[in-house]
Amino acid sequence: MQYRQSNNYMHQGLWRYCMPGKCFPHNDSIAHLDATRALMILSLLACFIGIIIGIMAFIHYSSFDRFDKTFAAGILFFISCLLVFLAMSVYTGVTMNYYGKRYGNWRFSWSYIIGWVSVVLTFFSGIFYLCAYRMHECPRSSNSH
């Protein structure tokens, strides 16, 4: 996630900031950047674990038979969606409040848009896994009667 000043070639992201010709890491511990980084990393972990569990569900991996993997994958994707949404909200709120008042011509860049797209994609991934869970549950519950 980054913003870029329109007339300058300066830009800043979560991990570093760049001026014409040079980039520097963020050495100061800035609370909103630390919170955004932590939430994005936790979201990435939840999404990765959700992908692994989802793959295990569709290849009928025999471990954890009592554990419904499609439901767990759906919940993990919803958790990932929530964490990305919180990270994007914190970053947007602080950045708009700070830079919107101080600089007139700045804009968010491509990685910011990817962050919001990931909110939508993880949300729909969670929905699709829960639909797969419901489709898998319906025949099982109708056969038990």
UniProtKB/TrEMBL annotation:
Intracellular or extracellular location(s): Membrane
Topological relation to the membrane, as annotated: Multi-pass membrane protein
Transmembrane segments: 38-59, 71-90, 110-132
Main location: membrane
InterPro entries documented for this protein: LMIP (IPR003935), PMP-22/EMP/MP20-like (IPR050579), PMP22/EMP/MP20/Claudin (IPR004031), PMP22_EMP_MP20 (IPR004032)
Database matches in PROSITE patterns: PMP22_2
Keyword field: Membrane, Transmembrane, Transmembrane helix
One GO CC annotation: plasma membrane
Domain of life: Eukaryota
Gene Ontology MF terms: structural constituent of eye lens
Keyword Magnesium: no
Transmembrane helix listed as a keyword: yes
Family listed: Belongs to the PMP-22/EMP/MP20 family.
Protein name, per record: Lens fiber membrane intrinsic protein
Taxonomic lineage: Eukaryota, Metazoa, Chordata, Craniata, Vertebrata
